[in-house]
Amino acid sequence: MTPTNAELIARRNKVLGPAYRLFYDEPLHIVRGEDVWLFDADGRKYLDTYNNVPHVGHSHPDVVAAVTAQIAKVNIHTRYLHETILDYAERLTATFEPALDTVHFGCSGTEANEMALRLARTHTGNKGVIVTECAYHGHSQSIYEISTRDVPVSALPDYVVTIPAPDTLRGRYRGANATDQYVRHVEEAVATLTARGHGVAALIIDTIQSSGGTVIAPPGFYAKAAAVVRAAGGLFIADEVQAGFARIGTKFWVYQDHDVVPDFVTMGKPMGNGMPLAACVTQRAYVETFAKANKYFNTFAGIPVTTAAGLAMLEVIERDGLQANALAVGQYMTGKLQALAERHAVIGDIRGSGFFIGLDLVTDRATMAPATALTARLVNGMKERGVLSGAIGPAMNILKIRPPMTFTRAHADLMLGVINETLTAVS
Amino acid sequence: MTPTNAELIARRNKVLGPAYRLFYDEPLHIVRGEDVWLFDADGRKYLDTYNNVPHVGHSHPDVVAAVTAQIAKVNIHTRYLHETILDYAERLTATFEPALDTVHFGCSGTEANEMALRLARTHTGNKGVIVTECAYHGHSQSIYEISTRDVPVSALPDYVVTIPAPDTLRGRYRGANATDQYVRHVEEAVATLTARGHGVAALIIDTIQSSGGTVIAPPGFYAKAAAVVRAAGGLFIADEVQAGFARIGTKFWVYQDHDVVPDFVTMGKPMGNGMPLAACVTQRAYVETFAKANKYFNTFAGIPVTTAAGLAMLEVIERDGLQANALAVGQYMTGKLQALAERHAVIGDIRGSGFFIGLDLVTDRATMAPATALTARLVNGMKERGVLSGAIGPAMNILKIRPPMTFTRAHADLMLGVINETLTAVS
User: Distance between alpha carbon A43 and the CA centroid of its chain, in Å?
Assistant: First the structure.
């Protein structure tokens, strides 16, 4: 017999405790997934428009087949020779510029960022980190302490300095000089860390600042910021845990739209299509410095079962042309959302690219004041109508539109109809 | 066509870099695993006597079936309701004392220790950590910095203080007063951390100090050490990442042989029988303090696919009586190893319990001087004869005997014959 939500919630509270949270006013009890659909225990189906982990769709048959075959065969650690990790790592590095030639595997985006930061600190000999405001990079101690979404500025260690997210919509700078004005904050952060005696180990940035509110950096910002940091002896970490793997449609990695080659690119969520797989892709010199000074081993990182999932996922993206699909369907959605904005004054902005779109909801277009409460009603109302999304941003007023890469125009139409209907109902 | 080892090693060096290491003078190219056996690319089979991740055997059919069924169904994160995580967490906490009632999942032993340390620091308000010498607890920044196997004492942060491992064989104290003499070091460490203004957040100890050389603490040590730390406001983390899940045969968790209930028990390696699954099991109060002060989410932790593997593994241990098997076959092996010691003067000590046995190899029984070079020859010679093991300990002179829980007397006889033959050949 299917337990009720109340029963499951009581069991969760008892055995998992209060740090575990649930989505939606009335949480979902999910029992099955297939492509862009999730099914609850009552057999009701939901269009998934925002989970960015099942990258080529829930339970994709190729990923299922790869995992099923591999786990039946063997699943050993990386101190034995095994071909899958090599096939995958070579295929992965082929999506990068030649300088980014070395892969360090992990099990989570947090572990990927841990690795990048440890490599950066070891190579530079510096401790200081520059991070954007309202950023989230992970849950381990040394990554949580740079996660400014959750840690107030007053509680940051003195080797962590924030810069404003390069937001040209709500941020302090707009217009033609915004890039240089934001870069000036990087220069100031470098000066602060230098004055405090820490030096600069790294600038770490989500290449689309998701927690920051789907912030798209202005042209030239990453390249100029990286140059400032490198001139001070620091390195540039592009966190693509959320945005990578062709989601934006135009490029495979977001930074590739910004005329810069990072020192580290970190990735996770979509990488194994749901299996715990993550990586830090970097340049050989940093790994060489690190290997001289440290021993490193990660039991479950890069194992056959998860890298088989990663390889299958990459193959599906390439074989099925899903990067082009993200671009085309993303453009289609953006156009339709713009049309919707003519009917709903609460839509203040539509931004992003491919399948990384933020629908910015406001109480007043002139002031762009965030419509936080309405966004929560929209998310819950869409869910009641069978479409799953979520809210993000410092004011939680941005609707996440980040569907699996197999999302079609028909799926988009269904989602757009529900957004229209729900906005009408909750506005 | 099967690539040569040289080709695979060249590919590894190119794409993974120098921080990735391989076991054995001539590394193994593993392509298949079944129960206690691993198979290389040439079809040669090896008896696995030391990999403690495939806990109920490589590719155990029940674990394979559970993973295969679950990945085909759905694999979503923990912000939806799902039964498997609850079934598993309830079954897991049933192996602990009632006070240890709350589970925090992770993807690696490192993440489990990260969580324990973050909870301890948040709850106590202290930063100081007491750790044994030559310990290894993980690879993230804040766990690596307490991993005294790899970080020299001079490079430890001043909020980390070491105590000697409670080794009554080679350590500084033996005999009847050893427990109290070792506890005195805990008292000193508390005093040092207090004097430095850090206070004590936690004492963290591998309940069998594996890296430290399969050190078995003397009776009463953990209980007395925990009492000293708690009196100073700190908490006790029992790291059972290597030793847990009934491996020792006598109890399900090692600390249960020591008349103490820890504040945190961390686990990983064997937990998912090869899938990336780990946890920190703790007491409700610490999680409540943490949840008030922090947001926490871990994308891949506790997901259906890995918890299904964990659940299947637990069921196999219980259904097949594998704890009793570990105890019985472990006693059988210990007896046979003692007989072997009469023929090989290099065997200096045999210690441990169940399937966590260390064979301590010495150049001189009187001085117990470690036979480091011989142990390396033994490990490689056993491998050439079809039996896989490894060396551990500060001097790398201890042969690890930590087979899957399905290891039988027949497997033990095969291993013992090869140890005997190889010791004769390499001594």
Answer: 30
